Structure formats: C-alpha cells, structure tokens
Give the backbone structure.
Amino acid sequence: MTTTADVLPTTSTEQLDERVRAARTGYEQAREVAPRRRAEWLEAIASALEEHAEELVPLAREESHLATGRLQGELKRTVFQLRLFADEIVGGEHFAATIDHEDPSWGMGPRPDIRRVNVPLGVVGVFGASNFPFAFSVIGGDSASALAAGCAVVHKIHEGHQGLGARTGQIVTEALEAAGAPAGLFSTVTGRTAGQALVDHPLVRAIGFTGSPAGGRALFDRACRRPVPIPFYGELGSVNPVFVTERAWAARRDEILAGYANAATMGMGQFCTKPGVIVVPAFDVDEVTDVLRRELGTKPLTALLTPGLREGFDTALAAVRALPAVDDLIVGDDAEAPRPTVLITTSEDVRDDATVLEREIFGPATVIIQYRSEDELEELASLLGGQLTATIQAEPDERLTGLVSALHAKSGRVLWNSWPTGVTVSYAQHHGGPYPATTAPATTSVGTASIGRFMRPVAYQSFPEAQLPSALREANPWAIARRVDGHRTRKSNTPEGEAR
Amino acid sequence: MTTTADVLPTTSTEQLDERVRAARTGYEQAREVAPRRRAEWLEAIASALEEHAEELVPLAREESHLATGRLQGELKRTVFQLRLFADEIVGGEHFAATIDHEDPSWGMGPRPDIRRVNVPLGVVGVFGASNFPFAFSVIGGDSASALAAGCAVVHKIHEGHQGLGARTGQIVTEALEAAGAPAGLFSTVTGRTAGQALVDHPLVRAIGFTGSPAGGRALFDRACRRPVPIPFYGELGSVNPVFVTERAWAARRDEILAGYANAATMGMGQFCTKPGVIVVPAFDVDEVTDVLRRELGTKPLTALLTPGLREGFDTALAAVRALPAVDDLIVGDDAEAPRPTVLITTSEDVRDDATVLEREIFGPATVIIQYRSEDELEELASLLGGQLTATIQAEPDERLTGLVSALHAKSGRVLWNSWPTGVTVSYAQHHGGPYPATTAPATTSVGTASIGRFMRPVAYQSFPEAQLPSALREANPWAIARRVDGHRTRKSNTPEGEAR
C-alpha cells in the first residue's frame, strides 16, 4: 500500500513548539469573543468542508480504502457537528453560567455575590483516528469541541491519511483566517516525536485522543507524569458486546444475525463501536453458519485502513483463535481485503477465561458465545471490562432489570434492539465509558456535552458589574442559559423563566 | 502534644478490603433509590451532627487546638452543606438528565431516541484534612458530595484528629442505619497503609483528597498508575496572592492591612485559602510595620494543628527567609503557639526568583511584595502557579481588565475587595484551580457543583419506557430538572417550562 505519508515531512520539536506558541497567542486573542462570533468561525469551517467535498472525499478514499458513500456520509456528519456546536455555544449551555446574588440570610452565614463561568483551557492537542478520517480526525469531534469551547487546537495528523490530513488542515486554517479568527488557532503537526512533544509541552492544557489501548495508555501515562499533569481524554478499546435473550432468539434469530453481521463488518469492522461479541442461546451450528455465510457474503471487502492496523488485526485474531476453548465457525482469509471470520465459544469457557470479552479484534472478525441459560447473562456482563456500548436484543415486553443494571455499570451507552455502530451527534449522546473504553469515563467525545471537556470553571466574588465577564453580567448581554440563585433562567434572565 | 492517635488501632489491609467490599454492597443496594430517599439520609446525618455538637466540638478543640467559636461555626457549615446537598439532589440538577426524542429529520440523518443520565461511580475514598476537622474531614464536602451523588464512602481519618474522626464516623454510620440506609455505605479507616491500599483498591472508583502538595501528588501518581486509573480530586497548595492597586493603597492602606492581617492569621494561618502573599506599592516601612504589629497583636494564638504541620511550617518559613532577597519585617517566635511573621521583598527580586509566589507557608507567616509601578502587576500575575484564589483590592471605579484576565487564567476564584478565607457553600461556588492548587482543575470541592465529580454519564438508546431509569422516563416521575430536545424543562416537563 502506498500513501502520501512518505512524502510529508515530519514536524520537528522546534516547529511543534512554534505552533503551540502561536496557538497560545491565538487562544489569548480569541478567549473572550462573543459566542456568536466564535460560532461564525465554526460555520466557516463547515462551509469550507462542504465546498471542498469533491476534493476531500477522493483523497480520503485513496488513503483509507473506505467507500465513497460512507466517506460522503462521514463528511456530512462532520459538517453537521460543527454547525450543531455553533448553535450550542450561542445558547451558552457550555458556560454553565451560575449566579448567586449576595444573601445576608443564607443558612450558613451571609453569602457574598458569587458568579461562576466555564472558561476555555488553552491549547489542546488532538490525535486523529485512522478509522474516521473526517469525523474523528483533523476537524472531527475533538477539534470541533475544543474550538467551540474557545481553545486553540494543534492536531497531530494520523499516519494513515497524511495527505488528507494536511489538506484538511489547510482548508480549516484558511477558513478561519477568512472568517477573521486569529492566526494560530488551528494547526497540524506530523510524526510520532511531535506527538509526544505535544503531550509534554507546558502550554498544552488537555489532550483529545482516539486510538489503540496500548498507544493511548502510553500517552495517558505521559500526560499524568508531567510536572503539571493535564487531562487526557482518550478513547481506547471496546468489544461492545451484544446480549440476545432466549425469546428474541426464538422470535427473530435470522433478523438478529443479519443485523449483527451488518454492524460487525461495517467499514470492515473498523469501528470503535463494532459489536465484537454476541452472546446467544445454544444453536444449531449448521443453520446459523448458513445464515451468517449468506449475510457476510454480501458485504463489500476492502483493504484495512493501514498496514499497521492489518498487522494488529492478524495478531489479535490469531491470539483469540489460539485460545483452547475458541473454535472456528467461519474462517476468513488473508487476502489484502480479508473476508470476515466468525469464531465460537461457550459461556462456560468464558467464565474460565474471559479473554474473548477483553480482547478487541479491530477488523472483520467476531466471536459468538453460546449460553445454556439466560440466567448466565448477568454473570457474563459482570466479567466485562469498561465498554463504549453494550446492546440488548430482547422482545419488547421483556423485563431485564438485572441485565440492564449490570450493563450500565460497565458501559457508556446501553442499547435496546438496535446496533451500536451509529453514534448520532446530539445533546443526549454519550460516547465514552469506563476504562479501558476511555481514560476519562465522565466525559463524552461525541455530542454537545463534549465541549465542556475543554473548559474549567472560574468564580468571581463581589465583582463590580463592569469588571465581570459578559456571561456573568446582570443584564445577560449574550442572552445565554444560566442558573440564578438556584433557579434556571431563560436567556433573557427574566424571573418567569425559572425552570425549577 | 498528645492526641488519641496513639490509642486508635490502624486499619489492616484485610480490614480495608472488607470495608471497601461492604461499601460496594451498600452502594449497589442504594444505587437506584429516589433522590428524596437519599436526601433523607443526608438530613439524618445533619441532624445527628447537630444533636452531638456539644460532644463533638470539645473533642475537636482538644485535638486541633482550634477555638470553640470557630469550630461551632464550622460544624454549622457542615450541617448546612448536607442539607443544601439534600435539597439539590431532590431538584436533580446533578443527574444532568438529557432526552433527545427520535427525530427522523435530524440534520446528519435519522436520530434514534437517546437519553443520558449521570450515575454514581461506586465506592469513593476520601482523605480528611487536618485544618477543618468538620467541614473538610469525616463528613465534610468530599464525603457529603459523594454520598449525595449516590456513592459509598470509605473515609481515611486524618492523624491529627483521630478521636474526633472515629466518633464522627460512628455518628454518621448510626444516623444512616437509623434512617434505613444500607449497611456499609459509610465507614472509616486509619493509618497510612490503609490510605494507600484505599487508592489501590480495584473497587474504589474515585478519590477525594485535601492535603499537602507532596502527599497529594504521591497519591495522584498512585491513582494514575493503577491498572484501571481513577480520578483523583486533590486539593493541594495555594499561596492565594492579593494585588493592591496604587489608588486603593492611597485611599485605605490601613484598612487593607487590617483585613489582610485578619485573613492571613485566621485559624493561625492554617487555611487553604490563606492569603500568603500581598503585592502593594512601595511604602513607608515604619508606618506599615506599626499598623501590622497593632493588628497582628490582637489575634489569639494557639498551637498549630499537629506536630507534623508545625515542622512543615518551620521548614517552609526558614526556606523563604533564607532567600537572599527576602527580609524580615516582623519576626514571630518559636513558641508552641507562634506569633505571626511578616517577610518583605520587592517585585524586582520576585521577577528574578519567583519562590515566594510558589512556596506556600502553611501557618502564621506572610510575604509582602513591594512594587514600583502598577504596570508590573500583570507580569507578576503571569509568574504565579495555579491558585485556589487570587484577590484584587482596588477602588470601585478602577478598570483592571488585564489584571483580572491574568488572574482568571491562574486561579479558580477571583475576588474583588474581599478576602479569600471565607468559602461560602452555594450553587455558584468554585473551590478549585489549576495545578498545583488542585489535581483536577475542572472540578470544585465546595458547593453543589461538587456532587457531579462522583458521577459519570450513561446513555440509553431506543429503550422501552418501562426499562428506563426513573430520571429518564417520559413522565418524569422524580420531577427533576431536565434538558429535552435541546430545551431546558420545568421539573414537571411541561412545554411551557422551556428555558431557551
């Protein structure tokens, strides 16, 4: 496989330092602009991406091997995300602006006037993922949310799509410049050394990362070891198990297998939310094999994203196949565009050795676990590590309180009769989960709630109105959502807007 | 100095493990109770503390040497905090419940029904502080917010008040039991080994800590190194600088000095928010010395909290006094209850060596920095490390945009013409700040916002109503504040409650 990786020069440590310093300057110049102004910058980036779609999608296709339709959809998602974030920051929820007026009769003793607002952290380092060259890369969720928060971004381009990364970076930088944003607010770097220097740089205040458990943990450790540690928002690995009840299996086995085969091989199984394991009642092997062969046979095959990922896939698959209690159900091949593999084991074996619940196989391979009794499901759930998602396939009237509770304890998103691969960008979305799914289980990397990751609160005590930041002034000049003396207020801050 | 520390047995690692396991069981039993029920538990603890005030305050006085009036006020604050948190969780802000209904015309493609709610993390380990034996100790802010979040707490009693700690722990445990809370939800342990084992225990999901920079960083590193890292909410050190403008100094020098002397020696200077440094225009040394001697001479003197803190005070004071550019203005003594010390240096010297801005002297000693020109203030602010607070003393009509901006970048709370030692418990309070003030700058350890530290979000996708957690059901049975399709709603979830 050839990529443009070889022709792009790697960023030196000196160049990295220059870009981080320029980003800091840009951040300082932009720190206090009104949300409407910042929203225009995000919208300018969104429009520029749309304008360059016909150039960017083929570039992405060439470097990632992903299908054109999928990449067009991903670019649409990326553009939508920027516009949703623009709208969100105008509403001002991300400021979490809170005002407590002076209160001489406050229960613990007289209360001074205290007002709190979230402020942007500063320069954020973002590491792009290989598997979503738009949505989780240069100007994907981490970069968009950091810019929406008011931070500057230095993005480390993924080795897997350096040509696309560099071109996207140019388009973003030019769009920001044309929209009047300060220089330096967004830039890109390349190469492993620059990535490490980015995590270490004293002016960098947070890291957004999507990638492998090993690489993510190494950078997390690095961020913790700094003289001044910084938050590391890392999305690492997840097997995204699916649990099928006896009744659901009896009622619609083939439909479930078809849905599973589709979700598990979408993008050649290279989704962080790929359902890697499905737990089902004991079945007739010939029948299930026939259904899966038929479903899997219709899926388009492409090469994996990068040679490194292919090597990782082969290694992980070999390791799981080598487990004594794991058998082949459908064996793929080692072609450049490999056909999917399906392995099989039993709940009893998993209770002895939970490796299949722990080891993500990033690529087109999955494991089916057969159980004898539905009573085993909660115990199997308890053996899971932290997950991005966990899915239940059940009949609509089933009550599975114990299983739902067990799965919510292990994962960031729990699904009912749907598939985890689609991650909608919205207000309620949570794309996160306990370690090792992420290194920051309280945060999401998708949806409007992701903006707050790149902010911290500052309280102002007894400040004169004229010296307060706009978000906290009595007249609410930015017309943002606030909480005043414990009550939610309308944007206009009128008393009838109380929401409690 | 004698304390009951010697007579209390330290907790063995086995006992620690038992308590953590019991806490996990208690947490699981309590996890899904309605907020009103949990609020009753907090209120039961508050009432029990009030009932035992006459027993607890003398115990605290004996072990901490703090004055009775101060301890009574601190207990009142602790009780108020529990009741405010009880009220807050009934309102349900901490759930951040967010509902996005299914939307086939959502901009990036059809949106499924997604609902997000914050859930409690599990067992939380809390390390009590020596300087607030009620408000930041056994059932202080960290424990109260963790219980309010729905977590169980294992509290490591501070060596400085083990008798009070053990007795408070009993009272809390009995109050919870009498109120019908599950066993194990709250317990205490003692000793350094148990403290370390608490940070390491696989069932512990977060740590709350208030203490020294060295001890806090060691435990932070420990929490990061775990196979499954956990958040470490540590409040470490802060010099809490005060910046005085030329006009304020000219208009009310003696009043400022009196306020400063009071704040800096309150509780013998053993406040995390003690203003340790004041930056003022060049002055007449004799006059200022006279004012300070007079003000400081009226303050009651007591022994420091513990022999260890006394040793730390002596060491830090000696180190700062040994700096070549630091001179004595008022020299205290080395009595068991030491008189306050005031040191003096210049802005020019601080620009050469910023140690006085970095080294907290925990106890009754402060540093005055004289500047030549107000233009230097922003530069001095830029030399600061992360702070809990930074204070400006200015005339009401002064415009200090640059200085306010420089200070907000360095601290969690910025004050105008007030003193940082009072930290009111309210909705808008933020008691936190950039490292080394804390290890988690996006969180507060005081105020209702502290509850969210001990929760993480879970999203439910396409769930049937009957299987959703109560906080997310369409009918809003707990009548909590929510955000629905992007709009804030009243508790009753009626459309007229929209707050955007």
Chain B touches chain A through 88 residues (CB under 8 Å).
